[in-house]
Design brief:
Layout lengths: L2 H13 L2 H7 L4 H15 L4 E2 L6 E2 L1 H24 L7 E8 H18 L3 E8 L1 H10 L4 E5 L8 E16 L6 H8 L2 E4 L4 H11 L10 E3 L2 H9 L4 E5 H7 L4 E5 L5 E9 L8 H13 L1
Parallel strand pairs: 3-4, 3-5, 7-8, 7-9
Antiparallel strand pairs: 1-2, 5-11, 6-9, 6-10, 6-11
Helix pairs in contact: 1-3, 1-4, 2-3, 5-11
């Protein structure tokens, strides 16, 4: 069944006569009449009572008009989805590296609700390497990751933000500065096999043998900052993460080297998601700025 005849039927119901519908649809009266007879034949039901002039809808005809109206509205919605182009419409599967999710997710969802109402998002968190693998395999459409080791050639990336690293320690431990911290106090190290962890490990290797080599390795930024706030040692983390969990007794010391963590939006090259990458990145960049 073609929707053209249903559109004509709905228009007849709207204007009240075959003649007015023919005029407004730029059709001849005979073409409208033939189209309605063909529709009645296809449905096996009388849609119009032709014993009166102009013909009027039967109870069955009114029921068909009601159903046809809903069907045509859904057809229009499908067409709008297909015409959306670069707009974010449909469901997107997005991964967030765990260390950034706490800062970006709330703002991202807020921006998406206001700026991309036609889109929905299935979200998950994980480590950068695992998320990159899921994008490559098609399990995720895109992922926000740390590109400490660079990205595989089959992934493209848009930089979302760059965060400097800073040292953090309780004020009572900082009398002798960074040199004293490294010499006398325990270092709390975020997982060395993660994107952030590798950057931290590379920076700390610059300071050997000037720092104690018995770091406490943890996989939770909040736990690390809690230990630092209690005066149990010091850490090196991206500045926004330190700021989020910092207490008033914690002192921040800049890194002597310009170490930065880059967060990027990674998508598979040549995938359908590529055309939506800039729109997704825009939402994420707005979220990062909140």
């Amino acid at each position: 069944m073609q929707t053209r005849s249903l559109k004509t039927l709905v228009w007849i119901a709207k204007v009240g006569s075959f003649a007015k519908a023919a005029e407004q649809l730029n059709m001849t009266l005979s073409a409208v009449s033939m189209q309605m007879k063909a529709l009645e034949s296809e449905l096996g039901a009388a849609l119009f009572d032709r014993s009166v002039r102009p013909p009027r809808l039967t109870p069955m005809g009114r029921a068909i008009v009601e159903q046809a109206t809903e069907l045509l509205q859904r057809e229009q919605s499908l067409l709008e989805i297909c015409r959306a182009g670069e707009a974010l419409v449909g469901q997107f599967r997005i991964g967030f590296v765990t260390t950034a999710a706490v800062r970006l997710l709330p703002g991202f969802l807020d921006q998406a609700q206001r700026r991309a109402p036609g889109a929905s998002f299935a979200l998950e968190t994980g480590l950068s390497k695992a998320l990159q693998a899921k994008v490559l395999s098609g399990q995720l459409d895109a992922a926000i990751v740390t590109d400490a080791d660079g990205l595989p050639d089959k992934l493209s990336a848009i930089v979302l933000r760059e965060d400097p690293f800073v040292f953090a320690a309780h004020a009572s431990l900082t009398g002798a500065g960074l040199v004293g911290l490294m010499r006398d106090h325990r270092f709390f190290h975020f997982m060395p096999d993660t994107g952030i962890g590798k950057l931290i490990a590379g920076e700390m290797s610059r300071h050997k043998p000037g720092w104690r080599s018995d770091p406490v390795v943890l996989d939770n930024l909040e736990a690390i900052m809690e230990c630092v706030s209690t005066g149990l040692g010091f850490t090196l983390l991206p500045a926004p993460d330190v700021a989020r969990y910092r207490t008033e007794d914690v002192v921040v010391l800049p890194s002597p080297n310009p170490l930065r963590r880059r967060l990027v939006l990674a998508v598979a090259r040549g995938s359908v998601t590529t055309r939506h990458a800039q729109a997704l990145a825009g939402l994420l960049q707005q979220a990062a700025a909140i």
